[in-house]
Amino acid sequence: MAEPPVRILSRYLVRQHLAPLAFSLSALTALMLLNQIAKQLGNLVGKGLPAGVIMEVFLLSVPFIIAMTLPMAVLVAVLHTMSRLAADSEITAMTANGISVSRIARPVLLGAAVVAVLAFLWNDQLLPRSNHRLRTLLVDIQRKKPSLALKEQVINEVVPGQFFLRAARIDPATNRLRDVTIYDLGDADRRRIITADSGHMGYTPGQTDLYLTLVDGDIQELRRGEEAQFNRTFFHTNLVRVRNVSNQLVRTEEDTYRGDREMTVCEMTQVVEAARNDARAARTDAEATVQRDLRRLAGLAPALGSQSPARDTTGGPYCRLLGRLTRWLLPAEAEAQTPFPRVAVQVPATPARVVPQIPLITPGGTSGEDDRVDGARRRAAVYLVEIHKKLAIAVACFVFALLGVPVALRFPRGGAGLVIGASVFVFAIYYVGLIGGEDLGDRLIVSPFISMWGPNLLFGAFGLAGLWVMRRASPTARGGGWSDLKEAVVGLFRRRARI
User: Most CB within 10 Å of its CB: which of 45, 75, 156, 223?
Assistant: First the structure.
């Protein structure tokens, strides 16, 4: 039995997109990774890190870069492939055999939908873990060399509770210090304050102790039990050794803190629902405060308190499905057993003392609850924006394919100029809208949905309009170059000038 020609055509169209997709994804990822290396390599090398740690930093940056470049690669692949097929008259041959433009675009859009699903799983499962490991590693690297972390005009705690240092000027490149003051509290029987005009910091060969070479200063010393005696020693050069100031990289094994970009959708959903429960509880407390004050003024007995029920924070079907898969794949955790049963002890009730009700109104009774509601709403908005951003960036793979098909078919002879020009134009508008929308959504100026899905809705509408137009006009390789686009733009401005 022969295979239907439409199915063969669908597989052919999908295969034609694979090589451009892989090439554009690799090229864009490598370009952005090189930019990341150029910005951070100098700081990492200056800390004396092993090559393996530096490589780990850049490898952990790859998942975030891929999350941003995958929609871009889809658009580049669709523009290149569809414009090449149209220029080679293959699209014309398909339409001549009764295959509509929408039928030609169907396998491309289905493939883009599959890429969108994979992109969402990548953004939701792999990206938060890599972001968490990257942040933890960067914090460990920042702690590695205290001399580079010292702040000017601030009392820096070099050894917790024992050794403090203040300098008016600090040169991180040469470790030079100016106008130095040291507070040495390491000895319980002796307190010292060391001042110097300048100094230099260095480490022992084992890089565990810190050496401070101080120039032109004095040492003020006071001993316990000898309060009447105060010693002051002047020096031209003084060498101070601070032990146990490690310059080794100590890796954090367990870090429970996670920011919004280090959490999955299900984890952020729980935070959002907890914030909403907090807001509902704050509103209930505010209403109860008002009712209590009114009943006091009316001389009525206090009403029984009511508490708004908290909503479920387990998430939607996606989170429940992930929970079932996790319980099925991972071994069940052992539950702790109570060694002895708890026995309830009856305590005799004490007669309540009657207190006369004083008709007072609680000052500012609802202002605290209003602040709680506003804080909970802002906290929920931050995580809602991040949830919608994960979904919107993944769906952008499908939206860019929807936009790229009619653009490529309308300008089949655009070539590399069309691919580069259209891609840069779309990327610039999309990511500027995404960054601006994130800021607006975090500040509650617009809803999180609109702030993150606005660029997708805009380009999706243009893509649907373009497909509808292309269904009425058959694509051909004889037109559709940059000259056609120029004539269309010039004609549009001339018509507006006549009006």
Answer: 75
SS (H, E, C) 298-360: HCCCCCCCCCCCCCCCCCCHHHHHHHHHHHHHCCCCCCCCCCCCCCCCCCCCCCCCCCCCCCC
| C-alpha closest to that of 460 among 391, 394, 411, 398 | 398
Report the phi/psi class of residue 161: left, alpha or beta, with left for phi > 0 and alpha for psi in -120 to 50: left
* Residue-level pLDDT at 243: 77
* pLDDT in the model for residue 410: 85
Helices (H), 411-447: 415-442
Average pLDDT, the chain: 81
Q: How far lies 132's CA from each of 61, 127, 263, 334, in Å?
A: 11, 9, 8, 27
Q: Where are the domains of the chain?
A: 5-143+391-442+449-476, 149-242
Strands 230-242 and 190-203: unpaired
- Per-residue confidence (pLDDT) for residue 41, from 0 to 100: 83
The answer to whether 295 touches 301, Cβ cutoff 8 Å, is yes
CA gyration radius for the chain? 34
325-335, pLDDT tens digit by residue? 777 776 655 44
Identify whether the C-beta of residue 61 lies closer than 8 Å to the C-beta of residue 36.
yes
Of residues 291 and 48, more confidence is placed in 291
Residue-wise pLDDT for 10-58, tens only, equals 899 999 999 999 999 999 999 999 998 888 887 787 666 788 888 999 9
303: left (phi over 0), alpha (psi -120 to 50) or beta: beta
Higher-pLDDT residue of 116 and 349 is 116
Model pLDDT for residues 160-187, shown as the tens digit of each residue: 788 899 999 988 778 899 999 999 988 8
Q: What is the DSSP letter of 261?
A: G
Closest by CA to 214, choosing from 229, 231, 198, 227, is 198
Q: How far is CA 351 from CA 348, 355, 358, in A?
A: 10, 12, 21
Distance of CA 41 to CAs 48, 53, 175, 334, 362, Å?
A: 11, 12, 20, 46, 59
Q: Name the residue type at position 99.
A: I
